[in-house]
Specification:
Strand order of the largest sheet: 2-1-5-7-9-11-13-15-17-19
C-alpha cells in the first residue's frame, strides 16, 4: 500500500479503516493503492474541476454515524419491494422472495475495469464490505417497482455496492433514493448488466441534508436489443455527484439518460455521464435541466464516445439551465468523441434567465410574479419529469418539484 501524501482528515480515516481490517483481498489492496496514488478528486482534475470533493471533505471533520430514524418513503404508496442501505448496512425485505427474483447480501465486486482510474470508485472497491446482489430471471416482467433506499446520517462515512443482472427478455422498474442529514460522506457503486432484449427503467431521487457529500456511480452494460432508461432528480447538498456510465456492447440497443437539478442556498448538484458506443445501430438520447438560485451550483458533464465499429449510431444530447439569481452558477460540458463515419450525433447547451415576455404574459393573465416564475420553472423541469412512463411515479416527482418551488 502506498501511503497517502498530506492526507485530509477523511483520507486519514479511510486509510485507518482499511489498515484495521482483519483481511483484505489482493484486488482490494490494489484498489486502495490506486486511490492512494490519486487521492480525493479535486479541481485540478479535468472531470472534477467544478466539483472539488477534496475541498468539500476538508471542510468537515469525520465523525460517527447517527442512529437513523427511517420514515416511510414517498414511494411506499407504489407497493414497492423495498431494500435499505443504512449507513452502509444492507437490509433485505421482510417478505418471501418473489418468483423470478434472486437477491441477497454478497461480497462486493473486486473491480470494474472501466473505472479503475476513478478515485472514488477505487476507494469504494477497497472499503465496501458488502454488496446487494439482485437478479431478474429470463423473460420475467416483474410488475412491482424495486426500491433501494440509501439512508445516511451523522458525520461518518460509508460505502456500499449493488450488483444487478437483468436477464434476457426480463423487465424491471428500479427506484433509488438518497436520504439523510449530517455532514458525512457516502459512496455507492452500482454495477448492472441489461442482457439481450431486456428492459430496465431506473429512477434516482436525491433529497438529503445540505451538508452531506454523496457520490453515486452507476455502470451499466447494455447488450443486444436491450433498453435502458435512467432519470434522476437532485436538490443538491454540500456536494452531490451522480454518475451514469452506459456502455453499449450489443447492436440495436437504446438508452435514455435524463436528469434535473433544483439547487438553492449553497447547494451543489453534479450530473456526470459517459456513454460509450461499442456496437452498431444503437440509439441514445439525453436531456438535462438545471435550476439554480442564491449561490447554488448546477454541474452537467455528458460525453458520447463512438468507437469505429459503432456505425449507424444515433445520439442526441441537450443541457439547459435556468439561473434565478445573480449568484447562481451553471457549468455545462457536453462532449462528442467520434471515430465512426456513418453516425448522427448532436449536442447543445444553453444557460439563461426566465423569459421576460413569458413572465409578462402570465402576469397579464392575473398571476402574481412569484406564481408566474414558479409556473415557468415547473414547465422547464417538466420536460424531464415527463420522461417517466409510470403515471404514479411521474406524479411523485412532479409533486417534489412543486414543493421545492413553494419553499423558495
Amino acid at each position: 500500500m502506498t501511503a497517502l501524501a498530506n492526507p485530509s482528515p477523511f483520507e486519514a480515516a479511510f486509510e485507518a479503516d482499511f489498515t484495521a481490517r482483519s483481511a483484505t483481498s489482493e484486488a482490494q489492496a490494489a484498489a486502495f493503492d490506486r486511490f492512494a496514488k490519486m487521492g480525493l478528486p479535486n479541481r485540478r482534475i479535468e472531470g472534477w474541476k467544478w466539483s472539488d470533493m477534496n475541498a468539500a471533505l476538508r471542510s468537515v471533520e469525520p465523525g460517527a454515524a447517527a442512529e437513523a430514524d427511517v420514515k416511510p418513503s414517498p414511494f411506499a404508496e407504489l407497493g414497492a419491494l423495498e431494500f435499505r442501505i443504512v449507513n452502509g448496512r444492507i437490509e433485505l425485505p421482510d417478505e418471501p422472495v418473489s418468483e423470478g427474483l434472486r437477491y441477497g447480501v454478497v461480497n462486493p465486486v473486486a473491480t470494474i475495469p472501466e473505472l479503475e482510474n476513478h478515485p472514488v470508485a477505487s476507494l469504494n472497491v477497497a472499503l465496501a464490505r458488502k454488496a446487494l446482489g439482485f437478479e431478474v430471471s429470463d423473460d420475467v416482467a416483474f410488475d412491482r417497482p424495486v426500491l433501494i433506499r440509501h439512508i445516511n446520517t451523522g458525520n461518518g462515512f460509508s460505502f456500499a455496492q449493488t450488483m444487478m443482472r437483468i436477464s434476457p427478455g426480463a423487465r424491471l422498474r428500479l427506484i433509488e433514493t438518497y436520504e439523510g442529514a449530517g455532514a458525512g460522506f457516502y459512496s455507492h457503486l452500482c454495477h448492472m448488466v441489461v442482457r439481450d432484449g431486456a428492459e430496465l427503467r431506473r429512477a434516482v431521487w436525491q433529497d438529503v441534508g445540505e451538508n452531506r457529500i454523496v457520490n453515486g456511480i452507476c455502470a451499466a452494460k447494455i447488450d443486444e436489443k436491450a433498453d435502458f432508461q435512467n432519470t434522476g432528480l437532485s436538490t443538491g447538498s454540500r456536494l452531490s455527484r451522480h454518475e451514469c456510465h452506459v456502455h453499449f456492447w450489443g447492436p440495436g440497443s437504446s438508452a435514455s439518460i435524463n436528469s434535473a437539478a433544483l439547487v438553492s442556498g449553497e447547494r451543489h448538484s453534479d450530473f456526470t455521464t459517459e456513454t460509450r458506443f461499442l456496437a452498431k445501430d444503437c440509439v441514445a438520447s439525453q436531456v438535462h435541466k438545471g435550476v439554480a438560485k442564491d449561490r447554488g451550483r448546477n454541474v452537467f458533464q455528458g460525453k458520447f464516445h463512438v468507437l469505429r465499429e459503432a456505425q449507424k449510431t444515433d445520439a442526441k444530447m441537450a443541457a439547459n439551465a435556468l439561473l434565478l439569481s445573480d449568484g447562481a452558477e451553471a457549468n455545462h460540458k457536453p462532449e462528442l468523441e467520434i471515430y465512426a463515419d456513418d453516425v448522427e450525433c448532436a449536442h447543445g447547451s444553453t444557460v439563461g434567465a426566465l423569459d421576460d415576455d413569458a413572465l409578462f404574459y402570465l402576469r397579464q393573465r392575473g398571476l402574481d410574479e412569484a406564481s408566474a416564475k414558479a409556473l415557468l420553472v415547473e414547465a422547464f423541469v417538466g420536460e424531464v419529469v415527463e420522461k417517466f412512463e409510470d403515471d404514479a411515479l411521474r406524479e411523485i416527482f412532479a409533486a417534489r418539484v412543486k414543493e421545492w418551488l413553494e419553499q423558495q
